[in-house]
Each structure stands twice: as C-alpha cells, then as structure tokens.
Amino acid sequence: MQENHIHSDTTFALRSVAFRVPGRTLLHPLSLTFPAGRVTGLIGHNGSGKSTLL
C-alpha cells in the first residue's frame, strides 16, 4: 500500500489523478505536489490534458 505524505510546506497536492471517458483515457494517473511559496507552470502540447487536470 502506498502512503500519501503531504508535507507542511505543501500548498496543493494531487494523488493518482486520472480522467477517462468511455473508450478513452484522457489523463493518465499522475501525482503532483506544489510547494508553498513557489510558482509552478504547467506546459504541454494542445490536447495533452492541461485544462482537464486543472
């Protein structure tokens, strides 16, 4: 079993996020941690799931 550790300096964390519609996976499972006090950019190709993630 995987433990989910979120540190006190974490502003936002995602764990094993995925998005599927019938017959298609739009966003494969991923985990992200956004540290407090840092600017984080999300970049990728058109249709890669950036807006779906947010």
Elements, N to C (H/E):
EEH
Low-confidence stretches: none
Q: What is the count of helical runs?
A: 1
What is the number of beta strands? 2
Residue fraction in strands:
35-45%
The overall average pLDDT, rounded, is: 82
Structural class: mainly beta
Distance between the termini: 27 Å
Overall 3D geometry? flat
What value does the Rg take, in angstroms?
Answer: 13 Å
Strand order of the largest sheet: 1-2
Helix coverage percent: under 10%
Largest sheet at a glance?
2 strands, antiparallel
Describe the structure.
Residues 27-54 form the ABC transporter domain. This is Ferrichrome transport ATP-binding protein FhuC. One of its GO terms (molecular function) is ATP binding. Keywords: ATP-binding, Nucleotide-binding. Strand 1 and strand 2 form a beta hairpin. This protein is mainly beta and 54 residues long. The protein has a domain at 9-35. The model has no long low-confidence stretch (mean pLDDT 82). It has one helix and two strands. The protein starts with 9 loop residues before the first strand and ends with a helix. It is flat.
